[in-house]
Fold this sequence. Notes:
The complex is a heterodimer. Chain A is mainly alpha-helical. Chain A is built from two helices and no strands. Chain A has one domain (28-161). In chain A, 7% of the residues are buried. Chain B is globular and about 70 Å long. The longest helix of chain B is centred in the C-terminal third of the chain and has 36 residues, at 171-206. By secondary structure, chain B is mostly helical. Chain B has helices spanning 2-15, 35-55, 65-85, 94-113, 133-155, 171-206, 212-242; strands at 25-28, 31-34. Chains A and B meet through helix 1 and helix 2 of A and helix 1, strand 2, helix 2, helix 3 and helix 4 of B. Chain B: Belongs to the ATPase A chain family.
Amino acid sequence: MVNLPLLLALQETNREIEGGLFDFNATLPLMALQFLALTVILNLLFYKPVSNVLDDRDEYIRNSLTMASTSLIKANELTQKYEQELAESRKQAQDIIKKSQQEAQQIVSIKIKEAQQDAEKLVFEASQQLNIQKEQALKTLEDQVDALSDQIKLKLLNGNLL
Amino acid sequence: MYQQEVEVISSYIAVSAVEVGKHLYWEIGGYKLHGQVFIVSWLVIIALLSLAFIGTRNLERVPKNLQNFMEFVIEFLQDIAKNQIGEHEYRSWVPYIATIFLFILGSNWAGALIPWKLIQLPEGELAAPTNDINTTVALSLLTSLSYFYAGLNKNGLGYFARYVEPTPVLLPINILEDFTKPLSLSFRLFGNILADELVVSVFTLLVPILIPLPVMILGLFASSIQALIFSTLSAAYIGEALEGHGEH
Lengths: 162, 248
C-alpha cells in the first residue's frame, strides 16, 4: 500500500514513449487551416446575411424616421394653413353678420318710422273725422234744440193765446 | 495481497484516471496529428455550422425566435470588435473575431459539458480542443499574422515605425512584445482549460459529485471568460496595429 504512488508512477513512465503536454506537430497548421475555413464558411453563412439584415433594418428605420419627420412638417404646415383659412373665414363671417345686423337695424328703424307715420296719420284722420262728426252732431243737436224751442215757443204762445 | 489491492485500485484509476499528455495519434503523409483534438473540434465546427445554417434560414425584417438569438450573438461580437478596433475599420475584422470567440467558446464548453470519459479511445481521451497546445498556438499565431497583416495593409512599411515609438530606447521591448503576445494568448487559454479539466478530474477521482459540481460550473464560467478574453485581446492587438502612428 505504501508503494502505491511509486508503482503508479512506474507504470506511467513505462507507458510514456511519446506525447506530453507540449507536443507540437502537424495538428497546429491543420488546426489553423481548419479555423480559417470555419471563418470563411461562417462569414458566408452567418455573419454576412445576419449583418445585412441588421443593416437593412437600420436603413429602413432611418428612412421611416425621415419620412415620418417630413410628413410631420407637412402636417404642421397644413394645420397652419387651415388655421389661417379658418381665422379668415371666421372674420368674414363676423363681417357679414355685422353688416346684416346693421342692415336689419336700418330696415327695422325705417319700418318703425313708417309705422309711426302711418299711425300718426291714422290718428290725425280719426280725430278729424271725430271732430267733423262732433260738429255735425252738435249741429243736429242745435237744429233739434231750435226745433224743440220753436215747438215750445209755439205751444206756449198757443196756450197764452187760448 | 497488496498486489491484488494495487491492481484493483489501479484498474479503478484507469477508468477515471487523469490522463495528461497522452494523445491519439493519427498519421497523414508522415506527419503526426492529435486525433482527439480533431474529433472534438469537428463536432464543435459541425455544431456551429448547423446552428448558423438553421438560424439563418428565413431572415426577416421583423426577427423571430432563433433569428433574434443569432442577431443578439452577432451584435455582441460586433460590439467586441467595434470597441477594440474602432468604428471605421471594425467591419472587415468581425468574421475573424467572431469566429475566434465562437470556436473557443464551443470548444471549451464541449470539453466541459459533454462526458467524454464515457467514450474510450485506444490512447488519450476526448476533451476540449483548446486543452491541446497546438490549437491555442495555432489560434494565437493566426492573431499575430492578422495584426501584422492589418498594420501592413493600412500603413504600409510605415507600420514598423511604431517600434521606435515613443522612443527608440523601447525598440527591444516592442520587438519582444510581438513574441510575448501570441505566447501569452496561447498559454493563457491552454493553461486555463487544462487546469480546469485537471481540477475537475482530480476532484471526481477523490470525491463523488458534490464537490466537483461547483468546480465544473466555475469551469463553465471561466471557459466563457477565456473565449471573451481571447477574442477581445485579438481585437485589441488588431486595433493597436491599425492605429496609425500619425494619428495620435
